[in-house]
Specification:
By secondary structure, the protein is mostly beta strands. It has helices spanning about 5-30, 90-100, 230-235, 245-250, 265-280; strands at about 125-140, 160-175, 180-190, 200-210, 215-225, 255-265, 290-295, 310-320, 325-340, 370-380, 385-400, 405-420, 420, 430-440, 450-465, 470-480, 495-505. A 16-stranded antiparallel β-barrel has the order 1-2-3-4-5-6-7-8-9-10-11-12-14-15-16-17. It is globular.
Length: about 500
């Protein structure tokens, strides 16, 4: 932002703050008779205030700013009604500006500026969502390991209510060639801590640099989602199941990393990707028809550990049929080396605890090979929908003797059936059924335990309105407990059933 514009904005904010303090003081200490009503509309233009009042004339509901002797008693209420639609930061600042205007409607000058120029606060929006959960293990097999679930740490023997996500997003266009997206989560846990949660953490912090004005070509720089897996790219605020499937989600910690990415998005796909979300069809957003880039490889909010980068590429193509049905096919892959963090365990529950070889500081070197390829099939719910993704590859994983992390094969994915039901009085319903499977190393967990996971899930998302959603589901799980225990046997299977519920508030 130019220095004079920055100073101007600061000065405007100061004036607005002073005006707000004055109004609040007047509201607190002023008195007004019961038969008079004084209303200040900060969004009204000067013309809306009516013709100028004659000297020494005071009418109910009017305030004069040019003659201190004729100003009426302060109002008892401030009728502050924002315009229709989303209220931007600019709306609030302009409202404060109007309170400082003289009766001729001329704005108080804060330096030379072009009135046709949009200000930074006209271009940025603030939004977010929060997810409140409760889980209950309704059944455990007799020989089962303690409850554990890769996507939700609250599925535990002694957990109850849980805030899964509390997101705040600031985004918008800086100018026609630059956009920013900043997202923080205020419900994160401290890595390695068993009892610390509700900490803030950067999830996304990037800028899009548009090479062309039509935004077909762009470069994204910063921490963002890595274009691998359609479900990984879909926002958690839009996803129907409460958690992503392990098969593809195990590829990238938090789905994000520090990266430099190129996206190619023809104009017709820009419009289509936006329409899929606007029409409540559970789209994944605009991550290009084609993407290519480099990223650190250790995962979001974790520092790089081997001074090497991963390479990723993705191609997706949405088909629009004559009846309006949209089907999207995609293929993606990445390649790099990954360094696994270690933790002491007793191999197979026998002998003293020791950190497996092949982990950081214990023979890992530059890490093990980490490569995957995945295919995606997405039929958007119109009203029936179907999603399926599967990936194969090789990556770091603990050996069967639980003594060494080595290069092992992996495979997994999911298939999900969806139905969309709109009602006039009760909102929108998304009943679903999903099967997911994964066999391979969970590299982002300590010692990269070799996991066997097969889950069945049924449930329904109920959208009361755009602001409130309730999702309930029931799971039958058979999955490896991924916790590294310093005593006893680690990585035994958790076999059981789980009832789940989540209330989501969008703001």
């Amino acid at each position: 932002m130019p220095r004079n514009h920055q100073f101007s904005s600061i000065l405007r904010l100061a004036f607005c703050s002073i005006a707000a303090i004055g109004l609040l003081t007047s509201l607190a200490f002023g008195q007004v008779s019961d038969d008079e009503e004084y209303v200040v509309d900060p969004f009204a233009t000067p013309d809306d205030q009516g013709p100028p009042l004659p000297d020494n004339t005071i009418l109910p509901g009017r305030m004069r700013l040019d003659d201190s002797n004729s100003v009426p008693p302060p109002p008892s209420t401030l009728d502050f009604e924002p315009p229709d639609g989303d209220t931007t930061i600019g709306d609030l600042l302009r409202a404060g500006d109007r309170l400082l205007m003289p009766k001729d409607g001329k704005e108080i000058s804060t330096g030379e500026k072009k009135k046709s120029e949009s200000k930074w606060y006209d271009k940025l929006t603030v939004r977010g969502y929060a997810q409140f959960r409760v889980n209950g293990v309704t059944h455990e097999a007799d020989d089962s390991a303690p409850p554990n679930f890769a996507g939700d740490s609250s599925i535990d023997a002694d957990r109850n209510f849980f805030i899964r996500r509390a997101r705040l997003i600031l985004s918008g266009d800086v100018n026609e060639r630059v956009a920013v997206y900043l997202q923080a989560d205020f419900a994160s846990s401290v890595p390695g801590s068993p009892d610390s949660e509700l900490y803030s953490q950067v999830r996304d912090w990037y800028g899009d640099l548009y090479i062309t004005k039509d935004r077909v070509h762009r470069v994204r720089v910063g921490q963002s989602k890595i274009p691998y897996g359609w479900e990984n790219l879909q926002s958690s605020s839009l996803r129907i199941p409460l958690d992503r499937a392990d098969g593809t989600n195990s590829a990238l910690r938090n789905e994000r990393d520090l990266a430099v990415l190129y996206y190619y998005t023809p104009e017709w796909t820009q419009e289509l990707f936006k329409k899929l979300i606007d029409d409540n069809l559970k789209g994944s957003g605009n991550y290009g028809m084609f993407g290519f880039g480099l990223f650190n490889g250790q995962g979001g909010s974790l520092r790089d550990r081997n001074n090497q980068v991963h390479v990723v590429s993705r191609f997706t193509y949405p088909f629009v049929f004559d009846n309006g049905q949209v089907i999207e096919l995609g293929i993606q892959g990445y390649l790099g080396n990954y360094v696994v963090q270690g933790s002491p365990i007793a191999p197979l529950g026998v002998g003293p605890a020791a950190t497996p070889m092949g982990t950081e500081g214990n023979g890992a070197g530059r890490g093990q090979i980490d490569r995957r390829m995945a295919a995606s099939f997405i039929m958007y719910p119109q009203p029936w929908g179907f999603q399926a993704e599967w990936n194969v590859g090789r990556g770091p994983a603990l050996n069967d003797a639980q003594t060494v992390v080595e290069d092992r094969s992996l495979q997994g994915g999911y298939a999900m059936l969806i139905y969309k039901r709109d009602t006039e009085e009760w909102g929108t319903f998304f009943p679903f059924a999903r099967y997911s499977e994964f066999v391979g190393g969970h590299k982002s967990y300590r010692n990269a335990p070799y996991s066997h996971m097969r889950d069945w899930e049924v449930g329904c998302e109920w959208q009361f309105n755009k602001a409130v959603e309730l999702t309930t589901s029931y799971l039958w799980v058979d999955r490896t407990n991924l916790t590294a225990f310093s005593s006893g046997e680690s990585y035994r299977p958790f076999i059981g059933q789980i009832a789940r519920a989540q209330l989501q508030i969008n703001y």
